[in-house]
Amino acid sequence: MNGWVEGHMTKTIIIGLSCLWFLGCSEDGSNAESSPVASPTIQVAADQSLPADLQEGETKFNSFCSRCHGPQGQGTNSGPPLVHKIYEPNHHADMAFQRAAAQGVRAHHWKFGNMPKIDGVGPEDVTQIIGYVRWLQRQAGLF
């Protein structure tokens, strides 16, 4: 194959994969921004007590995140639920949460507006918050 054809095929493959990734980034392959509010969330089992090693993460979540993301990550009128299939680890890895807290994030799943960076929370704080959120997600059967 000559260089031009090879380069053209590579670009076509990259564009195709990018489109698939973009479409896969919404709940159902459509533009999820059109949803003005969070869809119903999955409830966390009430019979499970929070492990002691996650209590600090819960405290930090309540301080930094629950105002918008709601108690136990169930969402509010100001922010989406984190106990939702969109935020399970295979779709939003832990690094996505780190990046959102450190840099903010442009709205792309919901119509709550952009998330600002969270002042006063460091990477270790976010790691503890992620541990708590992942526990909530596991309790809800998301993974």
SSE blueprint and pairings:
Layout: H1 3-24, H2 55-64, H3 66-69, H4 94-103, H5 123-139
Helix pairs in contact: 2-5, 4-5
How would you describe this protein?
This protein is mostly helical. It folds into 2 domains: 1-30; 35-139, Orthogonal Bundle (Cytochrome Bc1 Complex, Chain D, domain 2). It contains 5 helices and no strands. The protein has helices at residues 3-24, 55-64, 66-69, 94-103, 123-139. The protein is globular. The model is unreliable at 16-36 (pLDDT under 50).
Distance between the termini: 44 Å
Fourth-tier CATH superfamily name of the largest domain: Cytochrome c-like domain
At the fold tier of CATH, the topology name of the largest domain is: Cytochrome Bc1 Complex, Chain D, domain 2
> What structural class is derived from the secondary structure elements?
mainly alpha
Nearest-integer average pLDDT: 81
Work out the strand percent.
under 5%
Q: How many helices in DSSP terms?
A: 5
Low-confidence stretches: 16-36
Q: Using the 3D structure, state the CATH architecture of the largest domain.
A: Orthogonal Bundle
| Percent helix range | 40-55%
Largest sheet: none
The CATH class label of the largest domain is: Mainly Alpha
Overall body shape: globular
Radius of gyration, whole Å:
18 Å
Tell me the number of strands: 0
**Oligomeric nature of the chains:** single chain
Query: What's the order of the H and E elements?
Result: HHHHH
State the domain count: 2
